[in-house]
Amino acid sequence: MINLPLPLIQILIGLIGILAFVGLNGLVLVYLERKIAGHIQRRPGPFEVGPHGILQPLADAVKLVGKQLITPKGADSVLYWAAPIISFAPAIVCFLPLPFGPKLTNIDINVGLVLILAFTGLNVLALCLAGWSSQNKWSLLGAARDISQSVAYEIPLLLSVLPIMMLSGSLNLYEISTSQGAWPWQWHIIYQPLGFFIFFICILAETNRAPFDLPEAESELTAGFHTEYSGMGFGLFFLAEYSYMIVACAMASILFLGGFNGPIVSGWWWFLFKVYALLIVMIWLRWTYPRVRFDQLLNICWKWLIPLSLINLLVTALFIKL
Amino acid sequence: MLDFKLDEIEQSGDFYTRNFQPTPEENKLVLNMGPQHPSTHGVLRIILEIDGEYILRAEPVLGYIHRMQEKMAEVKTYPQYLPNMGRVDYLHALAWNWAYAGAVEKLMGLEVPERAEYIRVITCELNRINSHLLWWGAYLLDLGAFTPIMYAFADREIVMDILQRITGSRLTYCYYRFGGVSADIDQKFINDTREFCKYMRGRFPIYKDLVTDNIILRKRVEDIGHINLETCRKYGATGPVLRGSGKPYDVRRAEPYSVYDRFDFEIPVYDEKDALARYLVRMDEMEQSLRIIEQALDSLPEGDYIHPKTPKNPKPPKGEAYFAVEGARGKIGVYLVSDGSKSPYRLKLRSPGFSNLSLFAEIARGTLLADAISILGSLDLVIPEIDR
Q1: For the CA atoms of chain B, what is the radius of gyration?
Q2: Cα–Cα distance between B63 and B387 in angstroms, integer?
Q3: How far is residue B377's CA from residue B372's CA, in Å, rounded to a whole number?
Q4: Element (H, E) at A252
Q5: N or C: at which end does chain B have fewer Cβ atoms within 10 angstroms?
Q6: Nearest chain A Cα to B37, which residue?
Q7: By three-state DSSP, how is residue B163 classified?
């Protein structure tokens, strides 16, 4: 019997649980996305595989796994195949400090917020590598777009999170959750409506969701950075995108919507409910709006979001000091 | 890790690629847009030279769906060539039907019964609405909005069902004959069309609120792709492109054919010259088409739907004829030369899409890649029509 230290076992169990959670959520989200898109577009969405097409994402996943992995001619194969893994792996880490429920936190560390912000930033690197190593000009353009977009939107994202740190006095996500009450008027969103608004726009841009899906703009750049990927290479990018969406919405619900706190009985169900409500809003936006242009995207960030979030930060600081 | 050799690149590709002459500018990227790009609506290929995302040069390369439509006419008899016309521009097939039938009738001196003219007007305008609806959906797809095309298709479905009952096909119609149309319309067609007009009128405000007035869409189409009248004149642009540049030129008014002079309708014109102007012209045109259809249905005369003495296999007398109609994309012209035999001596098709695409190279210069796609969409291109 090997004596493993307790935190290591904890992390291992956590990782396995998270992988299962991410995989399952990926399937649910694919189904949700296609079904909601269908209903928005006056059609039923997937309907053939299983009752109401409920097994469709599973069939898609099997298809993706079974597909041949093609490395394009002239591509840097090491970087090319490293990119989807680099994109997906940090997404797993981001789930570690998330407090799913009052007793459901994998690692209760006091810099959870910083950890998530740091690891989500790694995704840019992966997309950059993917675009660069594909030996495809459309991918390269997609990667170039993604870098300037992510770098620009990370600033208002951080600036909109800072007031929450001031309000709760902690970087620990569990403590941020518990600093809010059960009822909606006790949540941070009441003190930070502008912050929430900026944060939500920023996570749309950071996760490359429409109307800010420029790095993979289908009608402009064919598929942007993942044009050349086949099979699970594409599948991992896809899964990573959905994972980051879940992480981003989880962050939004922890920071602004009280996390697992909810009316009547607090618990993980409230957390999941809030996360999925936000995810549905993201899906809804995607199937409603056209895509913005690149200079407009950066204008929104530099001319509106950053000044507004700075003002928000200063006003919050002033009120706390008073 | 560039491991393929330079001479390998030089030997690959087609004639155009091998003989491509890049501009002398430094730091540019040569990019092939198409023939399998989602926003080229078919097999159009555009060679782009870009600096960052700014386009230095855009050069359309044509011919990927060239089917020798003009040559085909020379080896077929006059009626045999009729089905070809539905394939030239599959979106506004009836206008092409009309242009060809009109040219042959002109050559033969064949009188078209009044009822047939009215039927032609009604069906052609229905087809125009269909074409504009598809353009609308596809254009928004180019701009990244996925949903409107589904609504456009749902509306198109009604028109296609109506036309299918009469013409027998849903897309590539071959309905017009020399001296009339192939089948008469019935009461159900009239009722369905009236119902569709009412339904469609109710849809336009919804589309305006949801799509046209959306701020993101406005920012994507406003002040983009200015085409002044001089450019239009140089390249021979017609249709909504010309009307979006402030010139109220419409073949239905400028050179009235058939019974169009009897209807009261407006030619939508916008002076802004940008993609939004072209967008609005098409949206307004659909409403005007509905007006024409309703008027034509109100005053539909009785009588023959085809000239009773149309020869089965016509041999028009020696001579030449030109007939132009207003298609969804602009002026469609058919120039026909007959040597008195069973098949045309020469047939020239003037497709509006070709002229409209030609100016793209000029107006795309200096724009962003995303804007170029918006401009390309606003020209409403149908590639089979351009290549013929």
Answers
A1: 22
A2: 5
A3: 8
A4: helix A231-255
A5: N
A6: A222
A7: helix
DSSP 3-state assignment of B167?
helix
Residue stretches of chain B with pLDDT short of 70: 1-13
Partner-chain residue, chosen from A40, A211, A220, that has the shortest CB–CB distance to B370 = A220
Q: Which residues of A touch B141 (CB under 8 A)?
A: 219
> Chain A: residue nearest B146 by CA?
A287
Q: Do A219 and B143 touch (CB under 8 A)?
A: yes
Identity at B368, one-letter amino acid code? L
Rounded to 5 degrees, φ, ψ at B54 are -90, 135
Residues on chain A touching B218 (C-beta within 8 angstroms): none
- From CA B12, how far away is CA A154, in angstroms rounded? 43
**Which of chain B's residues have a Cβ under 8 Å away from the Cβ of A146?**
none
Q: Is the peptide bond before B352 cis (omega within 30 degrees of 0)?
A: no
Q: Under a CB-based contact definition with an 8 Å cutoff, are residues B315 and B77 in contact?
A: no
Task: Flag if B373 and A41 touch (Cβ within 8 Å).
Answer: no
Rounded Cα gap, residues B311 and A297, in angstroms: 64
| Residues forming CATH 1.10.645.10 domain(s) in chain B | 69-355
What residues form DSSP beta bridges with B45? B61
- pTM of the entire predicted model: 0.86
Q: Look at B150 and A42 and tell me if their CB atoms are within 8 Å.
A: yes
* Helical spans, DSSP H, in chain B: 6-11, 15-18, 69-75, 78-88, 93-108, 114-142, 148-167, 187-207, 215-221, 229-235, 240-243, 251-254, 275-298, 352-358, 360-364, 369-378, 383-387
pLDDT, tens only, A109-152: 888 888 888 888 888 888 888 888 888 888 888 888 888 888 88
- A288, B145: Cβ pair inside 8 Å? yes
Q: Is A41 on the interface with B (CB under 8 A)?
A: yes
Distances (CA, A) of A141 to A65, A216, A223, B2: 27, 10, 10, 19
Tell me the ipTM for this assembly.
Answer: 0.82
DSSP3 helix / strand / coil % (chain B, rounded to 5) = 50, 10, 35
Instruction: Find out whether A45 and A37 touch, Cβ atoms under 8 Å.
Output: yes
Query: Residue B290's closest CA among B200, B190, B166, B159?
Result: B200
Residues of chain A found within 8 Å of residue B216, distances taken between Cβ atoms: 211, 289-292
d(CA B251, CA B219): 32
Rounded Cα distance between A163 and B117, Å, is: 72
Nearest chain A CA: its distance from B136 CA (Å): 13
> Which residues, in sequence order, are bridge partners of residue B29?
B50
Q: Is B347 helix (H, G, I), strand (E, B) or coil?
A: strand
Q: In chain A, positions 75-94, which contact chain B (CB-CB < 8 Å)?
A: 75-77
Q: CB neighbours (10 Å) of residue B16? A: 13
What pLDDT score was predicted for residue B23? 74
- Cα–Cα dist B254/A107, whole Å: 77
d(CA A246, nearest CA chain B) in Å: 23
Per-residue pLDDT tens for B118-147?
999 999 999 999 999 999 999 988 888 888
Asked whether the beta carbons of B305 and B113 are under 8 A apart, the reply is yes
Domain B69-355 has CATH 1.20.1250.20: no
Q: CA of A132: which chain B residue's CA is closest?
A: B1
Rounded distance between C-alpha atoms, residue A263 and residue B160, angstroms: 53
